[in-house]
Write a structure and sequence with these properties.
The chain is an alpha/beta fold. It folds into two domains: 205 residues, 3-Layer(aba) Sandwich (Rossmann fold); 170 residues, Rossmann fold (3-Layer(aba) Sandwich), CATH 3.40.50.2000. Helix content is 47%, strand content 14%. The protein contains 16 helices and twelve strands. The strands form two sheets. A six-stranded parallel sheet has the order 2-1-3-4-5-6, with helices on both faces. It has a six-stranded parallel sheet with strand order 9-8-7-10-11-12, sandwiched between helices. Helix 1 crosses helix 16. The radius of gyration is 21 Å and the shape is globular.
Amino acid sequence: MKHVVVVYFDAASGHRSAAVGLKRALDRCYTDWSVRLVNIVDLFDQHKRFGKIARYGIDRFNRQLKRDKVFDLGGQINLSLLFHDLLGKEGIRQLSTFWQETPPDVVISVTPMYNPALYASVRLVNPSAVCITIPVDFEEVKPRYWFTPRVEQYYLNGTDRLYQQARKAGVPDSQNYRVAGMVVDPLCYETPVLEQRAERARLGLNPDWPTGVISFGGQGCIHLKTIAEAVAQADLRVNLIFLCGRNEVVFNAIQNLKTPYRKRVLGYQTETPIQYLHLADFAIGKPGAMTITEALITKTPLIALKSKGMRPVQRGNEAWLVAHQVGILARHVGEIVPAIQQIITNPVYQQRAATEAHRAIFDVAELIGSLVSRNLQKKHDQYC
């Protein structure tokens, strides 16, 4: 049995979503593998100081997300890289104790910045461990955020931009792979057997009106409430499904808001709430890689609200969305209502989303199996 770990962190929600989807795909493909998810802060807890710093930083970041006021993201990234560099050999040795009970054969990271220390800690207990990094942004925001070519690892890149950035950073072609797109939960590909109109009616929605899903990730965001109010004032004949995540203040505000349209207001969903995208004619959310990809797979045109605090990371996602015409980039909340009217009357956006749909998660699972087999054969040849 191969012991495989998929490492993520809980800053925002895209990294966890990618990790959960990848685990589900690997479990289906390789029944003789033991695949488990690891939150990287659990690893950092082996270090007395760094664990506390990492948890505080991620909690603070998520609180900022709820207000869409992420302060100096570039500075926060630089600080994270600095803390990583200060770990040193002794710090990495402390981290390695996390793996001693069950040393992994394969480590797959969908987390940026910390992978050199992550892989070094694993290789102290298993020098032959296969290390694979899967970026979950459409481009690298700055050097060393995703690509660290001095550390042996494979990169599975979901965009041409990432692939070229890896080459420019010095990643050898033998470790640099271009895959069909970002990884998402395989459940995104499973079309529900429920009849769409009947399911809308069951949720208390008007089965004859266009339906939109509004989500700003697992942490929720104040924009949900602002959009709910703007659509109410415009008196649009649409249904709206609000996914409020862990933001109870926003959930209660929208639940109590009197609206001329029918709505469904939901809190945090432990599973990817993909069934609602299958019911929808459009989606509204942030320009996150997972948000864009889930919309593509379900052929749902996306209205993405231009990022502010997260712009350094999401700038490339926005550029990709606009260039491939799979949705509309709204510069501010005031442009949301006109964007809804444009989306529901112009079929081109849905057609473009369908054109850009892909099966990357299945391709990635197959490629991972190939890389693992190749490394096992190489190890066998060295000792025979």
